[in-house]
Amino acid sequence: MAPPLSAGPDSSAALLSRAQRAHYRLDWAKRLARNARVSTASQLTIRLFGIPEGFAASLGLATA
Hints:
Low-confidence stretches: none
Strand content: under 5%
Order of helices and strands: HHH
Shape: elongated
Structural class: mainly alpha
Helix content: 25-40%
Number of helices: 3
Radius of gyration: 25 Å
């Protein structure tokens, strides 16, 4: 019976230097632009449960 094949990473793959890895990362401007919400998106609504009405009113939140 033959020994099982190794499922580990390929040892022939070259490791990238810090500068090479940084080249593929996004800078903050590109990251924020990619994550930005489009202007045509509808209004976002978040429901918080368990918040006392008085506290929500003091924060100016709408209550049900």
